[in-house]
Amino acid sequence: MTEKTFSPRTEDYIRTALLALMGGALLHALHVPLGWMIGAMLASAYLGWRGVAAVPGLLRPAGLVVLGLGLGQTFTAPVMAAVAASLPAILVGGVASIAAGIAVIPLYRRLAGTDLRTAYYAAIPGGILTMAVLAQRAGANVGAATLSQTLRMATVVLTFPPLIALFAHGARDDAFASVLPPVAWGGLVLLLAGGIAIALLGAKAGLANAAMLAPCLLSMALSGLGWLPSSIPRWMVDLAQVAMGASLGLRLTPQALGGGPRRQALAGLVSALAVSLLLVMLGLLIGWAAGLPPVAVVLGMAPGGMPEMAVTAKALDLAVPLVLGFHLIRTIMCNLLVGPLWRGGIALGLWR
């Protein structure tokens, strides 16, 4: 009888899954904010640099469906009212995020030695896929823009959660706190099935980041109406973080980053730190002026991904709906305004 062996591809999947779980569990045990996601990301990136990492393509969208449902469930009727009252500040935050990205364009361009069009799409803090698509449509260097956006995302995921945690104590705002129903297995199965179905419909309709946004909107509606059949258990959210982290880690390998020049990588890192600093200051100012919890507003203004920052807010008990609202509005604004702003600036001779 011959010994059963795994093919390299199968071994890579198993190795990545085990190390991602171990890395996430270790950082979680050390009480690192967003530990499950960061640990999985670092483990996946390490294996990716060695050329032995593999993550199923469906893992990230599956994790996004769970996170979308878990985050949307926090929007009970009272919380929705509180978020609606904060809408002016959220809109200002969206405009400020785009403006901060525009402000660091000269810095990125000087360090990267690239053209203005590419610098524009590399510096504005939008989603990785969103900005890559917009850069392609505008005829910019997609590789450079994607490299910058990916490095910004990784930088924010690694720095913001531990820094925010230092100031999170006592920053909880009861106006954004939710009382959730207990876990009911029958209701949970229905909720997950509904989340998957609406995510597929959203993707077919062309909704940006449909895997998260569509289930999140479904969960928000059910929670706001008091019809939520079950809450999402914590362990399921933790596994979704591992899925997200492992998928993000694969984007940090030389192959995934396209082997961009070192000066483009340096420009991406420096501009990420610059825009982060600007948005921290703007977040504190907007939070103070609007009477909102400043730490939560800073997290809402952070130039990271919507799921990553919302999960950080959940882990630190920091007004998840408010943070999610800031990121949701910024995502919509980037999709609607970044392209027209570039074309309008060219027509008016503003971009030189």
TrEMBL record:
Q: Which spans are transmembrane here? A: 36-59, 79-108, 120-139, 151-171, 183-203, 210-229, 265-290, 318-342
Any idea which UniProt keywords this protein has? Membrane, Transmembrane, Transmembrane helix
Biological process, per Gene Ontology? regulation of gene expression
Record-level GO cellular component terms: membrane
The record's PANTHER family line, in alphabetical order, gives:
REGULATOR ABRB-RELATED
This chain belongs to which protein, by name? AbrB family transcriptional regulator
Question: Whose protein is this, by species?
Answer: Neoroseomonas marina
